[in-house]
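4.2 Preliminary Data

To establish feasibility before requesting continued support, the project team ran the inverse folding procedure on a target of 72 residues. The structure was first converted into the token representation described in Section 3, and no sequence information of any kind was made available to the design step. The complete token record follows.
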């Protein structure tokens, strides 16, 4: 529960406290995790973030283990 709270607030802080007053399109975002062995908490963090984003925005971000070629 604490990890979900931390992840949610980290994301909201990044979006809400941006120094530039402009619209940010996050509809094509991807959550990138490192490949290889991860701790149990690290392994579930991307899933929790995906669930929370979908619940609050309706956006379903995919999870990948490398940055997509089309990253802007």
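Position-by-position output of the design step:
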């Amino acid at each position: 529960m604490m990890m979900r709270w931390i992840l949610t607030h980290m994301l909201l802080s990044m979006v809400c406290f941006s120094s530039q007053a402009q619209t940010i399109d996050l509809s094509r975002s991807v959550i990138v995790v490192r490949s290889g062995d991860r701790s149990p908490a690290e392994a579930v963090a991307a899933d929790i973030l995906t669930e929370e984003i979908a619940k609050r925005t309706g956006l379903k971000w995919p999870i990948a283990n490398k940055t997509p070629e089309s990253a802007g």
